[in-house]
């Protein structure tokens, strides 16, 4: 009888000892799992603060630019600068209107310089804005994806020939188009905005093109 009792106690002790490592591993694994998402959460929080996701903004004044760099073969380097100056205003959280003046300066080696001026009028539908506001991921602002309908009338253009100094007027197209775009605020005073989509020249029938633009600059 005593030997049976000793065997039972010894067996119980073995079971307890065998179970302890598994429970310790489980607790350690749970602790590690709880710690792993923390860096990701910190990164997401910092990113959302950087793009001002929770800041209410209904009007955004923008001054942006993008450089052009290239090489035109035997005529030499080709470079330029595109700029935009304008304002975007929210009518409702998911819908905005905007108006811009956009300029482009281009230098083509030893051939010519040219300057053009365009207007841009557009409406933007921030299609995910309402859903993100309901889930607490965004306020009413300009850091989101959008679909756009836009018109780009040609206002002015001049070309100066390098060798003769002659100044010529440029004839350019008036475009209308649709597009998909992404805009993000970059801190308190910055933004980046890019758009791409098909466009149609209303003054030249049956002329289509892909319109693409990107600007980065000051946003207030």
Short description:
This protein has 220 residues and is an alpha+beta fold. The chain has helices spanning 2-35, 37-50, 129-134, and strands spanning 59-71, 77-92, 95-108, 112-125, 144-152, 154-161, 167-169, 175-186, 190-201, 208-219.
How would you describe what is shown here?
This is DUF3575 domain-containing protein. Keywords: Signal. Residues 1-18 form the signal peptide. The chain has 220 residues and is an alpha+beta fold. The protein is 25% helix and 51% strand. It contains three helices and ten strands, in the order ααββββαββββββ. It has helices spanning 2-35, 37-50, 129-134; strands at residues 59-71, 77-92, 95-108, 112-125, 144-152, 154-161, 167-169, 175-186, 190-201, 208-219. It has an eight-stranded antiparallel β-barrel with strand order 1-2-3-4-5-8-9-10. The termini are far apart. The model is unreliable at 1-21 (pLDDT under 50).
């Amino acid at each position: 009888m005593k030997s049976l009792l000793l065997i039972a106690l010894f067996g119980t002790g073995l079971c307890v000892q065998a179970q302890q490592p598994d429970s310790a591993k489980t607790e350690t694994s749970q602790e590690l799992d709880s710690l792993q998402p923390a860096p990701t959460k910190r990164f997401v929080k910092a990113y959302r603060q950087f793009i001002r996701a929770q800041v209410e903004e209904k009007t955004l004044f923008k001054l942006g630019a993008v450089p052009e760099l290239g090489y035109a073969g035997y005529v030499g380097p080709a470079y330029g600068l595109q700029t935009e100056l304008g304002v975007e205003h929210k009518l409702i959280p998911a819908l905005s209107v905007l108006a811009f003046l956009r300029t482009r300066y281009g230098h083509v080696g030893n051939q010519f310089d040219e300057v053009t001026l365009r207007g841009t009028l557009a409406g933007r539908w921030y299609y995910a804005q309402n859903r993100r506001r309901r889930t607490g991921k965004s306020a009413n602002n300009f850091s989101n994806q959008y679909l756009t309908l836009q018109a780009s009338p040609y206002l002015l253009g001049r070309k100066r020939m390098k060798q003769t100094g002659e100044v010529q007027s440029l004839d350019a197209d008036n475009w209308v188009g649709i597009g998909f775009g992404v805009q993000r605020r970059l801190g308190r005073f910055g933004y980046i905005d890019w758009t791409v989509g098909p466009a149609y020249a209303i003054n030249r029938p049956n002329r289509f093109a892909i319109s693409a633009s990107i600007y980065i600059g000051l946003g207030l």
